[in-house]
Predict the structure of GST N-terminal domain-containing protein.
Amino acid sequence: MKLLINLIRNLLGCIIAAIDFVTRGFKLKRTAEAQQQVATEIEKLSLYQFFACPFCIKTRRAMYKMNLPIVKRNASQGSPYREELLQGGGKIQTPCLRIEKDDGVEWLYESSEIISYLEKRFV
Ligand SMILES: N[C@@H](CCC(=O)N[C@@H](CS)C(=O)NCC(=O)O)C(=O)O
Protein backbone atom coordinates (compact mmCIF):
# COMPACT_ATOMS: atom_id res chain seq x y z
CA MET A 1 0.00 0.00 0.00
CA LYS A 2 2.82 2.40 0.96
CA LEU A 3 4.56 1.49 -2.29
CA LEU A 4 1.43 2.33 -4.29
CA ILE A 5 1.01 5.69 -2.53
CA ASN A 6 4.67 6.52 -3.21
CA LEU A 7 4.24 5.52 -6.85
CA ILE A 8 1.18 7.79 -7.25
CA ARG A 9 2.98 10.67 -5.45
CA ASN A 10 6.00 10.32 -7.73
CA LEU A 11 3.84 10.08 -10.83
CA LEU A 12 1.93 13.23 -9.86
CA GLY A 13 5.24 14.94 -9.04
CA CYS A 14 6.59 14.09 -12.48
CA ILE A 15 3.45 15.49 -14.11
CA ILE A 16 3.79 18.71 -12.08
CA ALA A 17 7.49 18.89 -13.03
CA ALA A 18 6.58 18.53 -16.72
CA ILE A 19 3.89 21.25 -16.46
CA ASP A 20 6.39 23.47 -14.65
CA PHE A 21 8.92 22.92 -17.43
CA VAL A 22 6.58 24.07 -20.19
CA THR A 23 5.05 27.01 -18.28
CA ARG A 24 8.00 28.46 -16.36
CA GLY A 25 8.47 31.46 -18.66
CA PHE A 26 11.48 33.74 -18.69
CA LYS A 27 14.52 34.13 -16.49
CA LEU A 28 15.48 37.39 -14.89
CA LYS A 29 18.06 39.12 -17.06
CA ARG A 30 21.15 40.72 -15.51
CA THR A 31 24.21 42.32 -16.99
CA ALA A 32 27.11 39.90 -17.53
CA GLU A 33 28.94 41.42 -14.57
CA ALA A 34 25.93 41.16 -12.26
CA GLN A 35 25.31 37.54 -13.32
CA GLN A 36 28.98 36.76 -12.70
CA GLN A 37 28.67 38.23 -9.21
CA VAL A 38 25.58 36.06 -8.62
CA ALA A 39 27.48 32.99 -9.90
CA THR A 40 30.21 33.64 -7.33
CA GLU A 41 27.73 34.10 -4.50
CA ILE A 42 25.69 30.99 -5.28
CA GLU A 43 28.80 28.81 -5.05
CA LYS A 44 28.08 28.85 -1.31
CA LEU A 45 24.52 27.58 -1.76
CA SER A 46 23.08 24.17 -2.56
CA LEU A 47 19.52 22.90 -2.67
CA TYR A 48 18.76 19.48 -1.17
CA GLN A 49 15.69 18.23 -2.98
CA PHE A 50 13.64 15.46 -4.54
CA PHE A 51 12.89 15.75 -8.24
CA ALA A 52 9.15 15.07 -7.94
CA CYS A 53 8.42 16.89 -4.66
CA PRO A 54 5.90 19.71 -5.32
CA PHE A 55 7.57 22.02 -2.77
CA CYS A 56 10.91 21.43 -4.50
CA ILE A 57 9.35 22.13 -7.90
CA LYS A 58 7.94 25.41 -6.51
CA THR A 59 11.40 26.33 -5.20
CA ARG A 60 13.22 25.32 -8.39
CA ARG A 61 10.69 27.33 -10.41
CA ALA A 62 11.40 30.44 -8.33
CA MET A 63 15.15 29.84 -8.67
CA TYR A 64 14.77 29.53 -12.44
CA LYS A 65 12.80 32.78 -12.66
CA MET A 66 15.41 34.55 -10.51
CA ASN A 67 18.13 33.10 -12.78
CA LEU A 68 19.91 31.38 -9.90
CA PRO A 69 21.54 28.17 -11.15
CA ILE A 70 22.11 26.82 -7.65
CA VAL A 71 23.61 23.33 -7.34
CA LYS A 72 20.95 20.71 -6.61
CA ARG A 73 21.56 17.67 -4.42
CA ASN A 74 19.26 14.70 -4.78
CA ALA A 75 18.30 13.59 -1.27
CA SER A 76 16.27 10.51 -2.18
CA GLN A 77 16.85 7.04 -0.67
CA GLY A 78 20.33 5.69 -1.35
CA SER A 79 21.91 9.05 -2.12
CA PRO A 80 24.85 10.20 0.04
CA TYR A 81 23.29 13.67 0.12
CA ARG A 82 20.39 12.26 2.13
CA GLU A 83 22.76 11.52 5.02
CA GLU A 84 24.38 14.95 4.65
CA LEU A 85 20.96 16.56 4.93
CA LEU A 86 20.07 14.51 7.99
CA GLN A 87 23.38 15.16 9.74
CA GLY A 88 23.59 18.83 8.80
CA GLY A 89 19.99 19.98 8.90
CA GLY A 90 18.70 17.53 11.46
CA LYS A 91 15.83 16.02 9.46
CA ILE A 92 14.90 14.61 6.08
CA GLN A 93 12.65 17.27 4.64
CA THR A 94 13.00 18.85 1.24
CA PRO A 95 13.55 21.41 -0.07
CA CYS A 96 16.38 22.56 2.18
CA LEU A 97 18.87 25.25 1.23
CA ARG A 98 22.41 24.79 2.56
CA ILE A 99 24.01 28.19 3.07
CA GLU A 100 27.74 28.44 3.73
CA LYS A 101 28.53 31.48 5.83
CA ASP A 102 31.76 32.86 7.24
CA ASP A 103 30.76 31.65 10.70
CA GLY A 104 29.31 28.25 9.76
CA VAL A 105 26.61 26.54 7.76
CA GLU A 106 22.89 27.28 7.90
CA TRP A 107 20.31 24.73 6.74
CA LEU A 108 17.16 26.57 5.69
CA TYR A 109 13.97 24.48 5.47
CA GLU A 110 10.51 25.47 4.12
CA SER A 111 10.02 26.38 0.46
CA SER A 112 8.47 29.78 1.26
CA GLU A 113 11.37 30.68 3.58
CA ILE A 114 13.91 29.65 0.96
CA ILE A 115 12.21 31.66 -1.78
CA SER A 116 11.94 34.77 0.47
CA TYR A 117 15.61 34.44 1.41
CA LEU A 118 16.65 34.24 -2.26
CA GLU A 119 14.37 37.12 -3.29
CA LYS A 120 15.76 39.35 -0.54
CA ARG A 121 19.31 38.49 -1.45
CA PHE A 122 19.24 38.41 -5.27
CA VAL A 123 16.27 40.38 -6.64
N1 LIG B 1 6.11 22.95 4.32
C1 LIG B 1 7.23 22.31 3.66
C2 LIG B 1 6.80 20.95 3.19
C3 LIG B 1 7.95 20.13 2.64
C4 LIG B 1 7.61 18.65 2.50
O1 LIG B 1 6.57 18.16 2.98
N2 LIG B 1 8.47 17.91 1.81
C5 LIG B 1 8.30 16.49 1.70
C6 LIG B 1 8.55 16.05 0.27
S1 LIG B 1 7.32 16.64 -0.85
C7 LIG B 1 9.33 15.77 2.53
O2 LIG B 1 10.46 16.22 2.63
N3 LIG B 1 8.96 14.65 3.14
C8 LIG B 1 9.90 13.84 3.90
C9 LIG B 1 10.22 12.56 3.20
O3 LIG B 1 9.73 12.32 2.10
O4 LIG B 1 11.02 11.78 3.76
C10 LIG B 1 7.73 23.22 2.54
O5 LIG B 1 6.98 24.06 2.05
O6 LIG B 1 8.91 23.11 2.18
The chain has a mean pLDDT of 96.
